[in-house]
Write a structure and sequence with these properties.
This protein has helices at residues 12-20, 30-42, 79-89, 103-110, 133-137, 161-170, 238-241, 243-248, 267-279, and strands spanning 48-53, 73-74, 77-78, 94-99, 119-124, 148-152, 155-157, 176-182, 191-195, 198-203, 215-223, 252-256, 261-263. The chain contains nine helices and 13 strands.
Length: 280
């Protein structure tokens, strides 16, 4: 989004605190730190996150059958721990984790989340239908006012959640904003056609895409409570039943970013993540 250059004078102690906020990942430099800290201070309502961590456990040769994806070890930590730490760095202190059949293992490991500086509430998925729609609808009572982060629990990324929130809040008349990653082969993910800041067409895993876009759904969103009106009781997937409709109505924003993004869905995906992290 457009930014303006300003000059400010600060006490040395405040400047040291600003520099301490720079971690090279979520907060890139001193200027970004000032913006990041001001955004947190001026945020009218605390932002919550909904993390979808249900689904069946992994069937990876090197792990016990049924291990939740959220507990897959990456760089010495479970995948979900990376997400929670990132949320905490961005000043988001409340997360609702939606869990499925293997949810007890996730609850036992993370508990109330205070060890990581974040308050975790758990929501046991009630619907027998597979997909992303019903777990989101079941969380409706947690998000009655204000935008919230919606994250898929099998995604590892360097995206700044605060930048995504800022982008969403700078737009008008949006029901949701979808983070977009750029890939060469798009058939594995939902493909978005972006015009300006709006997604005007969205296709879920198309065999023959109508658009030549290389921007795909990254599984990271900001959503308004109005999104629940778009999720029917029989809806299965947001990607095929909600996002295309929002795109047609001009109510789906698109936030394209160039950072790292890994979808840990298959054994091959997992090995690719481990390989890339070793090279970094």
């Amino acid at each position: 989004m457009p930014r303006k250059r300003i000059t400010i004078t600060l006490k040395e102690e405040i400047l040291r605190q600003i520099d301490n906020a720079v971690d090279g990942r979520d907060v890139r430099n001193r200027s970004h730190a000032v913006e990041h800290l001001l955004s947190k201070a001026l945020m009218q309502k605390p932002v919550k996150a909904l993390i979808l961590a249900g689904g069946k456990g992994v069937d990876f040769p090197e792990f016990p059958s049924g291990l939740p994806k959220a507990l897959l070890p990456i760089a010495g930590k479970p995948l979900l721990e990376h997400v929670l730490v990132k949320l905490c760095h961005c000043g988001i202190k409340d997360a609702i984790v939606s869990v499925g059949q293997q949810g007890q293992k996730i609850k036992e490991y993370f508990g109330n989340g205070l060890k990581w500086g974040i308050n975790i509430s758990y929501l046991d998925q009630q619907s027998v239908q597979k997909g992303t729609a019903q777990p989101v609808l079941e969380a409706k009572d947690y998000f009655s006012s204000g935008a919230f982060l919606l994250l898929y629990g099998d995604v590892l990324t360097s995206i700044s959640y605060m930048d995504l929130l800022d982008f969403h809040n700078s737009q008008t008349a949006l029901v949701a904003t979808m983070a977009l990653a750029s890939v060469e082969r798009v058939s594995m993910w939902g493909v978005a056609r972006l015009v300006g800041s709006r997604i005007v067409e969205f296709e879920e895993k198309p065999k023959n895409p109508k658009t030549h876009s290389h921007l795909v759904n990254a599984g990271i969103y900001v959503a308004e409570p109005s999104i629940f009106k778009y999720i029917g009781k029989d809806a299965v997937k947001l990607e095929s039943e909600v996002f295309p409709r929002l795109a047609e109505e001009g109510k789906l924003g698109g936030y394209s970013y160039d950072g790292s993004w890994y979808d840990v869905s298959t054994p091959q995906d997992y090995q690719e993540v481990i390989h890339h992290l070793k090279l970094e």
